[in-house]
Amino acid sequence: MSTQTRLAKFFDGFSYILLLLNILIVPLFLDKNLSNFYIIPKQYVFGGLIIINLFVWMLKLIFTKKLQFTFTMLDKPIVAVVIAGLFSAIFSTNIFSAFFGRAEFFSFNFALLILFICFYYCLVNFVTTEKRWRGVLDAVSFAGLLSFIFFILKIFFKFDFLTNFFGSAVNTVDNVNSLFGVWTIFILILSFGQLIKKTIGLARNIFYFVVGLFSLSIIVMLSFTILWWILLVSLALLLVLGISFVKEVRLGWLSALFAMLVFTIIFIIFGTPKFLQIPVPSEVSLGFKPSFSVTSATLFSGVKNFFIGSGFGSFGVDFSKFRSVEFNADPVAWSMRFSQPASTLFSLVSEGGLVLICSIIFLVLLLLGHIFQMWNKMRVEALNPSAEINFTKDNVLFESFLLTNAFMVLTLGFGVMFYSQVLWWVWWMTLALIVVGFSFYNRHFIKEKIWTLEESPQYNLSFSFSLIMIVIGLIMLGVWGARLYLGERSFAKAQSSGSYDKAEVYINDALSKQPNSDVYHAALAQIYLNQAVEMSKQSTPDVQAISAVMAKAVNEAKFATDISPQSVVLWDNLATMYENAAALVPEARDWAIKTLVQARDLEPTNPVYWWRLGNNFTATSKWDEAIKNYEKAVELKKDYFGAYSGLSNAYEQTQKIDKAIEVYEKIIPQTQVSPEVLYNYGRLLYNRDGRGDKAMAEKIWNKVVELQPNYSNALYSLGLLYESRGDMSTALQFYYKVKDLNPNNKSIIEKIKKLVGASNPVAPSISPTGKTN
Q1: Which of 97, 202, 227, 306 has the fewest CB atoms within 10 Å of its CB?
Q2: Separation of alpha carbons 651 and 638, rounded Å
Q3: What is the spatial distance between Cα 43 and Cα 22, in angstroms, rounded to a whole number?
Q4: For 134-183, what is each residue's pLDDT tens digit?
């Protein structure tokens, strides 16, 4: 064996080991020292291992002087996906997020797409034997088993060891447990699919039985309805596979799968018994109807969006822009802002446009078309006793069909769930394993080419220069990634720090590593704002120092909006800074109004911004503008009590008492209102003093006191009402209650003294409790 051949085998083996490490680590790795310990750690460990793999590939090329590359039948649709993704990222509303993603939530991005494709080709080029192929499959199942064990230890035993490494994470795959359930179903398909095969060794039989038992148990424990439906489809596909090759499977296990199918249907219809379920954190996500509404509005909002979408990671911007008025009717979700749709399909359509989704559909259909031809051929041969090809112990043909089932389930899942990076990682890995698995039996799936480098000095010089540039690029990419990772750790330290000074140091350290992070600048602005609030609480506050800190808060918030001008959250944050600064700098109120107009224009159906604009116009006594904005807020949300109160106050200030009362008459019957709303309604009636108004005010204020016995304003108002009627005894009862709640209030003390002296110059006859002395 020549030296070049030995080196080639060494580098191939090392690359294969790196792939196994990737498969074992990605589903399990977390870093509790980060603010989001699922997204960044997994992306970085995945990307780091891929970069090392590419570096080893370059070393192999240098030492062997041969470039060996395996092409696949899916190369053209993959290139189409890359081109569509590139254009989507370039013309995105936030280019940095489109290329590199976000740290605070998962968004599909171009860098991650390139890493997935590199992962795909690493698997295709280094998993070159059936033994290696099966090793990858076993590694995936083993990683699944470890993730199940960690989950059970955390849920049932509160294992401190896991807390030290994983923090508050419930599972190691994703912060959304339903996505962990999809991962579990994927492992279940692999494990039970292996068990139905006749030619399987004892050790593998035991291993996959344990994995299958764990996976089924966890699905039962989670018992999300969507998981039962996905499991139903998975079991149905497994049964079709088993029945199609009935001579190659164990009928006992096939019957067990059918029994599982029956129980799945029962659990879907009647629900899972409560004693089998475990309490897991509730999950909040955008519904399918609003997701469809936002996606369709984005798609048809222009030629650019129709073909290449609004850009990776921009669904949050689309949500703000196309958020429907009907969304305000939701009692819980109306005040939330969603950066992710209900499913990956909606995300791909709105963010990538028609070109991207068609490229992915073509990729899937091309693969399934070739597999269907093989499946049909193998199905016929399986029924023929003289057929030469069958599912022996050594080949991986059955497992390739099994992975096809899992791939179809994962792809169908695009339409019902929003996938995180681990499930995308599984999707691309499964795609590569299917291509490699079938390539052992069908030459149409892959095509290998080898280029031998020439030995001429000119060629060697240009080749060496090119390799050096590539290696330097990979090293710089790794260093840049490490800086970003360290910046995220500093940001997490700032968030958990109990000292504003330390938090400022950590945030500035994070900004030194990633100066164009809108999140970091917004966080630093919030730190400065909190500092200013604390300084204002001192016995002798330094106004000049507070003004200086508030100026820094405003500057940081402004810088964040300059980086991401389409982010409603950042304009909201900047408006908050201006509103707080208005107490020191009167001009800041106008700045707040202009900033809120920006936020309102980006999210026009959100009544909060119309309400806040009304409040700011109220603060500047611009009552007509305030009324317009309050009326728009009420129009958008019929039960927006804050806007109703503001509108009533604006009418009152413009001497339109009847209209002010009409506003309260609209909201009082709607639902249970706050004591403050009831009190103000009664106050307006009392001040109008029309026929029956004071009697109604009395009734309302008594209701307020019934709801909140220590409501001083209502108690004092009742005292005034009874005093105006000449009922001094009852009035004193309420005044004494106000005095008990406000013992240092000199005005109420004087009021009581005056009233007691007028009614009985000798001594008061009523105690604070209302009883006779």
Answers
A1: 202
A2: 18
A3: 11
A4: 999 999 999 999 999 999 988 887 776 667 777 778 889 998 899 999 99
Distance CA 749, CA 735 (A): 9
User: Could you tell me the pLDDT band of residue 591, with boundaries at 50, 70 and 90?
Assistant: very high
3-class SS of residue 441: coil
Report the pLDDT value the prediction gives residue 772, as an integer from 0 to 100: 29
Helices (H), 537-640: 543-563, 568-581, 588-602, 607-619, 623-636
Highest mean pLDDT among 372-381, 458-467, 729-738, 744-753: 729-738
Taking the C-alpha atoms of residue 188 and residue 218, their distance in angstroms, rounded to an integer, is: 10
**pLDDT for 608 beyond 90:** yes
Length of the chain: 773
For residue 515, give every residue at least 6 positions away whose Cβ sits within 8 Å of its Cβ, in sequence order, or none.
none
Q: Which two tokens stand for residue 538?
A: 């001192």
pLDDT band at 634 (very low <50, low <70, confident <90, very high): very high
Q: Which two tokens stand for residue 104?
A: 């605070």
Q: 260 to each of 236, 245, 264, 383, how far by Cα in Å?
A: 10, 20, 6, 27
**pTM above the 0.85 mark?**
yes
Contact call for residues 734 and 726 (beta carbons, < 8 A):
no
Q: How many CB atoms are located within 10 Å of the residue 470 CB?
A: 14
Residue 409, CB half-sphere, CA atoms under 13 Å: how many?
A: 32
CB atoms within 10 A of CB 101: 21
Query: What distance in Å separates the CA atoms of residue 138 and residue 27, rounded to the nearest whole number?
Result: 14
The owner of tokens 């600048």 is: 521
- CA dist 8 and 6 (Å) reads 5
Of residues 125, 133, 132, 136, the one with CA closest to residue 8: 125
Instruction: With a cut of 50, say whether residue 388 has pLDDT above it.
Output: no
CB 534 within 8 A of CB 527: no
How far is the C-alpha of 304 from the C-alpha of 49, rounded, in Å? 36
Give the DSSP per-residue string, 33-61. Answer: TSSSTTHHHHHHHHHHHHHHHHHHHHHHH
Residue found under tokens 């709640």: 741
Cα–Cα distance measured from residue 592 to residue 598, given in angstroms and rounded to the nearest whole number = 10
What are the backbone dihedrals phi and psi of residue 72, each rounded to the nearest 5 degrees, phi first?
-130, 170
User: How many helices, marked H, and strands, marked E, lie in the chain?
Assistant: 32, 2
Helix (H/G/I), strand (E/B), else coil: 501 = helix
Asked whether residue 770 carries a pLDDT value surpassing 60, the answer given is: no
Inter-residue contact 401 to 241 (CB < 8 Å): yes
CA 149 to chain centre: 25
Q: Of all helices (H) and strands (E), which one includes residue 70?
A: strand 66-72
Q: Are strands 66-72 and 446-452 parallel, antiparallel or unpaired?
A: antiparallel
Question: 614 with 633: CB under 8 angstroms?
Answer: yes
CB 467 within 8 A of CB 58: yes
